[in-house]
What we know:
two-stranded antiparallel ribbon; extended
Amino acid sequence: MGPHSGKLGRIYGSIPRLPSESRSRLENIFMFMLYDAYDRVEFGNAALYSCLINDFGIIQNEGIIVCLSNGHELKVYFVPVLWLGENLALHQPMGLVESFSANFLLQVFKTPQNRLRFLTSDENVALRYEEN
């Protein structure tokens, strides 16, 4: 792709219920979406991610056919239940603060940035819970 190809966004997925020896194999990590980051700025999150959301609806409601090694076919339904990623990758599609100079850097912590810089363990970190 090269250094002049522009900034690309990528969304990958995997199936956490696979056996542990299969989970991290490249053949079981799927690229759901590859996009030019400037398109997100120009068209917005809703327009950019709508195709991905539609695809998730299809695999959840209609399922996909999986061909088994014994020649049989099986219809499988998927429900996306967990989103993982680094801060920016999660903040962009969810409409959260994208600046790393924000007061609260991480979506899981309720600890201000000026305190996080001096912590040496997670014992004194205020985590976000449903109540707060």
